[in-house]
Write a structure and sequence with these properties.
3% strand; Azg-like; purine nucleobase transmembrane transporter activity; mainly alpha; 21 helices; Azg-like_bact_archaea; transmembrane
């Protein structure tokens, strides 16, 4: 085992790898709660049950997808990188695709499956790198920052810290309400933990907030800690039904935009995370990342398995940097994280009682982390600032990640051409321009 993961060469040992794997798990364990809440649209009132995914089944799918993806990354690519359903992508899946576009969740899962299969083909062919390189760095950064704002807005709304306001569209909620006050307390606690550099601060913040909520009588006390694993039957294989029974529903411009958005966001989540973790761990060879193909294959394969199990796009998590900071250097840490995700299946009774006010702080802080890269955009160049800003701001304002991406990608070639920098625009960006113009004309 030590020789397979090259412990001696990378200056690590079992203790460091186990601690690193545990730290990574604690840093991203919030997804076990947030993903089922998001995909089941639990915080949306008055919604037909047929539009909601089964909470219990999504929990199992989340844990299994994370375990499979992380284990594949550890054994195949040998990187200390964990995977799980992505926060930005699950928000797009639930709020934009299901609620906004009215697409059944079964069809949305089929879209995720298709994006994963395309991802695998692009990875094996080498085309993926060409597509990524065609999109300017500023827009890549803007997409991540925009998703961060969108996630924060969803968190604030779920906690009812931000509510509807007839005069101003949105306004501050009732801070004297028990649930709202609990969310505010949770935000303060999580901010303190993260500011102090506590590993797994987001997860610990959720735990502390839940305990406070129990003492205050706002959160239900769990009746048991360990229980039977819930059934995955309601979601397992649902992604295959539209493909075999109603394929015509998948071959539409609307679904093309959905699939491309799943694919696009996963592209840059993965690329950014791989580089960030590898740089922090000192695994880069010059400016290149060793075993890139295997890492991308592990990520794309995880998306396919996750869709079949019943969850949105599974992607590499930047929280893996927490495990690297704790000492992880090899794929053995990922194996440890994968085992912990499997064990979490038996603690469903505890995780199942965590409510929106408890999870809202995690959403908000994840948004803060994602927006932190915004300083890398050259705001002094107006032709760059406009499409980047539009990409970021229109995601939360329109409640749609796809709309934000589309508006940014439309304005980028416009501003660059007017500035006389048309030669810097890759032909693929013109293709994106046409696709999104058609999307706004015929879909919205």
């Amino acid at each position: 085992m030590k020789n397979y993961f090259k412990f001696d060469e990378l200056g690590t040992n079992y203790r460091r790898e186990i601690i690193g794997g545990l730290t990574t798990f604690l840093s991203m364990a919030y997804i076990l709660v947030l993903n089922p809440i998001t995909l089941s649209l639990q915080t949306v009132e008055g919604l037909d049950d047929s539009l909601r995914m089964n909470y219990d089944a999504v929990f199992v799918a989340t844990a299994l997808a994370a375990a499979i993806g992380t284990l594949t990354m550890g054994l195949l690519a040998k990187y200390p990188i964990a995977l799980a359903p992505g926060m930005g992508l699950n928000a797009f899946f639930a709020y934009s695709v299901i609620l906004g576009m009215g697409i059944p969740w079964q069809n949305a899962l089929a879209g995720v499956l298709c994006s994963g299969l395309i991802f695998i083909l692009l990875t094996l062919s080498g085309i993926r790198e060409k597509i990524i390189n065609s999109i300017p760095a500023e827009l890549k950064i803007a997409v991540g920052a925009g998703i961060g704002l969108f996630i924060t807005f969803v968190g604030l709304q779920n906690a009812k810290i931000i509510v509807d306001n007839e005069a101003t569209l949105v306004g501050l909620g009732n801070l004297t309400d028990g649930n709202v006050l609990l969310a505010v307390v949770g935000i303060v606690i999580t901010v303190i933990l993260m500011t102090r550099g506590i590993k797994g601060g987001i997860f610990y913040g959720m735990l502390i907030t839940a305990v406070i909520g129990m003492f205050a009588g706002v959160v239900e006390v769990p009746k048991q800690i360990v229980g039977a694993v819930p059934s995955i039957a309601p979601t397992f294989g649902a992604a295959l039904d539209p493909i075999f029974n109603s394929p015509a529903e998948l071959f539409t411009l609307q679904m093309l935009v959905v699939i491309l958005t799943f694919l696009f966001v996963d592209f840059f989540d993965t690329a950014g995370t791989l580089v960030a973790v590898a740089q922090q761990a000192g695994l880069m060879k010059g400016d290149k990342l060793p075993r890139t193909g295997k890492a991308l294959l592990a990520d794309s394969t995880a998306t396919v398995f996750g869709a079949i199990l019943g969850t949105s796009t599974t992607t590499s998590y930047v929280e893996s940097t927490a495990g690297v900071a704790a000492g992880a250097r090899t794929g053995f840490a990922s194996v440890v994280t994968a085992v912990l995700f499997l064990l979490s299946l038996f603690f469903f009774p505890v995780l199942g009682v965590i409510t929106a006010p408890v999870t809202a702080p995690a959403l908000i802080i994840v948004g803060v982390l994602m927006v932190s890269v915004i300083g890398k955009i050259d705001w002094k160049k107006f032709e760059i600032a406009v499409p980047a800003f539009f990409t970021i701001i229109f995601m939360p304002l329109t409640y749609s990640i796809a709309t934000g991406i589309g508006i940014g990608f439309i304005f980028y070639p416009i501003t660059m051409l007017i500035k006389g920098r048309g030669k810097e625009i890759h032909p693929i960006m013109y293709a994106f321009f046409v696709i999104f113009v058609l999307y706004f004309i015929f879909i919205l």
